[in-house]
Known about the structure:
Elements: H1 3-30, E1 34-39, H2 49-58, E2 63-66, H3 71-77, E3 83-88, H4 93-98, H5 100-112, E4 121-127, H6 144-157, E5 165-167, E6 170-171, E7 175-176, E8 184-185, H7 190-202, E9 207-210, H8 213-219, E10 237-239, E11 242-244, H9 247-261, E12 269-274, H10 286-301, E13 305-306, E14 309-310, E15 316-319, E16 372-375, H11 385-394, H12 410-425, E17 439-442, H13 471-481
Parallel strand pairs: 1-2, 1-15, 2-3, 3-4, 4-5, 6-9, 9-12, 12-15
Antiparallel strand pairs: 7-8, 10-11, 13-14, 16-17
Amino acid sequence: xxxxxxxxxxxxxxxxxxxxxxxxxxxxxxxxxxxxxxxxxxxxxxxxxxxxxxxxxxxxxxxxxxxxxxxxxxxxxxxxxxxxxxxxxxxxxxxxxxxxxxxxxxxxxxxxxxxxxxxxxxxxxxxxxxxxxxxxxxxxxxxxxxxxxxxxxxxxxxxxxxxxxxxxxxxxxxxxxxxxxxxxxxxxxxxxxxxxxxxxxxxxxxxxxxxxxxxxxxxxxxxxxxxxxxxxxxxxxxxxxxxxxxxxxxxxxxxxxxxxxxxxxxxxxxxxxxxxxxxxxxxxxxxxxxxxxxxxxxxxxxxxxxxxxxxxxxxxxxxxxxxxxxxxxxxxxxxxxxxxxxxxxxxxxxxxxxxxxxxxxxxxxxxxxxxxxxxxxxxxxxxxxxxxxxxxxxxxxxxxxxxxxxxxxxxxxxxxxxxxxxxxxxxxxxxxxxxxxxxxxxxxxxxxxxxxxxxxxxxxxxxxxxxxxxxxxxxxxxxxxxxxxxx
Length: 487
């Protein structure tokens, strides 16, 4: 009789201990954040996809996000074991939202064909890229959920619905508030966000958000610079019992509050894009990029979480980005081409530890001969303006702009930089350094300080380069070039 209560108590205690163990194991799984990268392919000097995948392996990068199902990239990733989030461009959403056969075809051509034995490890399909961006004025808004529904059905038909999760990367402008605890989705998005998040939750998918403290700093002269980083700030934000010491945590918790207001406060969150550019703006430089990215990685891998989610960091974060992309639009700013933690040729820009050692450079990168095209110092450059514009229409000259690493190399230096960028883009073709006799080839590296005069690569042909194409980019660059003083 006396032993019975003790036995019961022991049984209860054992059950409690088992529950605690399960909770501890489960929670430890929740906080194991992964560090991935975004792999964009809008490069003027595109590296071989195989070389890029080897770069992932050498740096133990186990997660990659693609903006579309580029066949060459997908084939290179097959058999690598690297976890892939493959994207669907926004301009495909109207068709996918109205046609189940189009959704079936997309899944067949871009997912099923790679999900074979020894194939690609696709974990997510990103349906659109920031489709609710305020600047789109609702252009894609009505297509997102119907496209998700059709694609989910297509995944089920292909027996992939339980393996691959559909997500929708959202820009942080989808929500707003003056304090994190007051976060809410934009009023015009409340209904569709509720539908979207309900779909994600019912299918076990996370919410994917892109967070850019750099853009907050770039777009607001009153934004406190130290609040953008992780080393402490004199401009902390007090929100009731919570204090925020960096913009990332404040932004993240604003989303947590917005999700809570529509009934999904525990929704897992992945940060699909986050990073800091190294050129093209005053606050974009190597030291700032290293400080931000290393601070972010340490913060996330330290499992610190945020005030609203203590000890629960994002499920994963994807650094933006792997490589510089010289063919990206500069409409948002000249920094758009300089987000890479590696330069276009896979060389680490600065020391960065992703959690498993410092970055390692790409191997087996094949370069053109060590020669450069510069302005002939013996020639009168009074007629060089049109040649300069031509070179910068096709090549990337954004580092010459205010705040860029080559902004202070002088008028002749600007011309030489433009000439060389064009010359390397055309694979050092002899005629591409003529410029009506104003250019000359040199075997002495004309780089000045941090201003690097590149030498092109030979791995693959220049990506998407056509002397008669890219009209929109041409017009934008002509407008941009007019702001640069070359003489």
